[in-house]
């Protein structure tokens, strides 16, 4: 009789069910502890300023503004969706970009303010978030300057080794956000169009048929980049009725 009972216990799943129940209990307990820790952690406030601060940049923020041209080239320094009391504009100078490097900048009018007032903050935020506003500021290495081919009628658009092209792809308007430093290739990750920055951002691969629009640039008396005018051709995707 005892042997039969032992054999029945071994062949049943009662012991396995106990293990399953124990594992389930341990899992639920760990989940409960994690939830409690997250809840308590959310109640703890950190000391100091609760607004996140932008990373420290070596670029000089705007301060000397009297007598400067109206159209500027800026780099946004405020954190998205967070108010800030710090200056919202940081201007680029030639020494801020390494040879072969690229920086995303935004053309901005000085009359729009520097972001220190609610009105100018809204204007600069709209400029930064604008679809057609991002511009790639590229610095060509001195040894590669002999390879540069300038577009007819735009020979004076660059400032020395610095060239500025729109970041809006000429295929369907996607952001051409990838840049290969060694080959100076600009890549649109959406449809794989590639542009050669050494040859007026001319398309060399993919469906894009137009070069990226180039922005004329120079520097002011304080050594900051400024736009020397607006784009002279449409920015964005090509259409059948366009001749450029």
Automatic annotation (TrEMBL):
Domain Rieske, chain residue ranges per copy: 132-226
Membrane-related topology note: Multi-pass membrane protein
GO molecular function, one term: monooxygenase activity
Listed Pfam families: QcrA_N, Rieske
Chain ranges passing through the membrane: 20-44
Domain of life: Bacteria
PANTHER family reported in the protein's UniProt record: CYTOCHROME B-C1 COMPLEX SUBUNIT RIESKE, MITOCHONDRIAL (PTHR10134)
Function: Iron-sulfur subunit of the cytochrome bc1 complex, an essential component of the respiratory electron transport chain required for ATP synthesis. The bc1 complex catalyzes the oxidation of menaquinol and the reduction of cytochrome c in the respiratory chain. The bc1 complex operates through a Q-cycle mechanism that couples electron transfer to generation of the proton gradient that drives ATP synthesis.
Recorded family membership: Belongs to the Rieske iron-sulfur protein family.
Protein name as catalogued: Cytochrome bc1 complex Rieske iron-sulfur subunit
Annotated source species: Mycobacterium xenopi 4042
């Amino acid at each position: 009789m005892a042997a039969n009972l032992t054999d029945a216990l071994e062949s049943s799943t009662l012991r396995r069910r106990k293990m399953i129940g124990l594992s389930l209990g341990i899992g639920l307990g760990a989940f409960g502890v994690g939830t409690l820790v997250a809840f308590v952690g959310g109640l703890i406030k950190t000391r100091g300023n609760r607004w996140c601060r932008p990373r420290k940049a070596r670029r000089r923020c705007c301060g000397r503004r009297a007598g400067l041209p109206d159209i500027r080239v800026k780099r946004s320094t405020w954190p998205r969706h967070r108010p800030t009391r710090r200056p919202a504009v940081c201007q680029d100078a030639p020494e801020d970009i390494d040879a072969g490097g690229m920086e995303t900048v935004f053309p901005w009018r000085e009359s729009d303010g520097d972001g220190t007032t609610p009105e100018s903050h809204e204007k600069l935020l709209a400029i930064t978030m604008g679809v057609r506003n991002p511009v790639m500021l590229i610095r060509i290495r001195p040894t590669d300057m002999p390879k540069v081919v300038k577009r007819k009628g735009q020979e004076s658009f660059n400032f020395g080794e610095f060239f500025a092209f729109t970041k809006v792809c000429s295929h369907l308007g996607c952001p051409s956000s990838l840049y290969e430093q060694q080959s100076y290739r600009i890549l649109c990750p959406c449809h794989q169009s590639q542009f050669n920055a050494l040859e007026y951002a001319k398309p060399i691969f993919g469906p894009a048929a137009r070069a990226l629009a180039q922005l004329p640039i120079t520097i002011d008396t304080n050594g900051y980049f400024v736009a020397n005018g607006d784009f002279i051709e449409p920015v964005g995707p090509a259409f059948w009725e366009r001749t450029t």
